[in-house]
Automatic annotation (TrEMBL):
Keywords: Manganese, Metal-binding, Mitochondrion, Oxidoreductase. Residues 109-210 form the Manganese/iron superoxide dismutase C-terminal domain. Pfam families: Sod_Fe_C (PF02777), Sod_Fe_N (PF00081). This is Superoxide dismutase. The keyword Metal-binding applies. It catalyses: 2 superoxide + 2 H(+) = H2O2 + O2. The lineage of its organism: Eukaryota, Metazoa, Ecdysozoa, Arthropoda, Hexapoda. Destroys superoxide anion radicals which are normally produced within the cells and which are toxic to biological systems. It comes from Papilio xuthus (Asian swallowtail butterfly).
Length: 216
C-alpha cells in the first residue's frame, strides 16, 4: 500500500514539474518567404494554428497526468486521439518552419548522391514529392523521409496531423503542409501552384543536416 501511494506521489510530482510545450520562434520574419508565402499566411499559420496545437497538447497532457494518477485507464485511452493530433501538429510544424528559408540553398553532396540513387535525379524527387503532396485527399502532409532499416529515401504522405515517424517509421527530412490554412489565402484552391512554389524556399541546408543525422 505504501509503495502504491509513493508511486502515485511520483506521478503527481512529475505532472507538477512537467515543462509545457511552447511556440518556437521562427528563424526569419513573417514576410521573409514572400512572394512564395505571404506575411498574412505565415503570421496566421504560426501564431494561431501552431499555437492552438500547442495549447491543446498541453491541455491533453495535463489530463493524461491526472488520469494516470487516478489509474483511470478509460480516460487515458480516450486522450490518445487528442495527443496524436495536437502532438503531431506541434512536431510537424516545428520541422516545417526549419525546412523553409528565404536564403537560397542546395542539397549537400551527400544528400544529392542519395537522391540520385533512390530517385534518379533531384528533379525526379521533387516531381514525385509534389505529386504525392498534391494528391493528399483532404488535409495532410507530403514528406521526404529516410528509411533507416532499408537505408533509403522514401516519399510518403500522412493524413491530418499524423506525425511521419510515429506513423510510418520514416525519419522526417522535408515536409510540405497541404492543409488549406497553409496556402488558401494566397493560392485559393490551386494546391499544385503552392506545392511547386514551396521548393523555391526549401532550406536544403536543414534538410541535408536531417538526412546526415538520420543516416548515421
Amino acid at each position: 500500500m505504501l509503495a502504491t501511494r509513493n508511486f502515485g506521489n511520483l506521478i503527481r510530482a512529475a505532472g507538477a514539474t512537467r515543462l509545457k510545450h511552447t511556440l518556437p520562434e521562427l528563424p526569419y520574419e513573417y514576410s521573409a518567404l514572400e512572394p512564395v508565402i505571404s506575411r498574412e499566411i505565415m503570421s496566421l499559420h504560426h501564431s494561431k494554428h501552431h499555437a492552438t496545437y500547442i495549447n491543446n497538447l498541453n491541455a491533453a497532457e495535463e489530463k493524461l497526468v491526472q488520469a494516470q494518477t487516478k489509474g483511470d485507464i478509460d480516460t487515458v485511452i480516450s486522450l490518445a486521439p487528442a495527443l496524436k493530433f495536437n502532438g503531431g501538429g506541434h512536431i510537424n510544424h516545428t520541422i516545417f518552419w526549419q525546412n523553409l528559408s528565404p536564403k537560397s540553398s542546395k542539397p549537400s553532396d551527400v544528400l544529392i548522391k542519395a537522391i540520385e540513387k533512390d530517385f534518379g535525379s533531384l528533379e525526379n524527387m521533387k516531381n514525385q514529392l509534389a505529386a504525392a503532396s498534391v494528391g493528399v485527399q483532404g488535409s495532410g502532409w507530403g514528406w521526404l523521409g529516410y528509411n533507416k532499416q532499408m537505408k533509403k529515401l522514401q516519399i510518403a504522405t500522412c493524413q491530418n496531423q499524423d506525425p511521419l515517424q510515429a506513423t510510418t517509421g520514416l525519419v522526417p527530412l522535408f515536409g510540405i503542409d497541404v492543409w488549406e490554412h497553409a496556402y488558401y489565402l494566397q493560392y485559393k484552391n490551386v494546391r499544385a501552384d503552392y506545392v511547386k512554389a514551396i521548393f523555391d524556399v526549401a532550406n536544403w541546408q536543414d534538410i541535408s543536416a536531417r538526412y546526415e543525422n538520420a543516416s548515421k
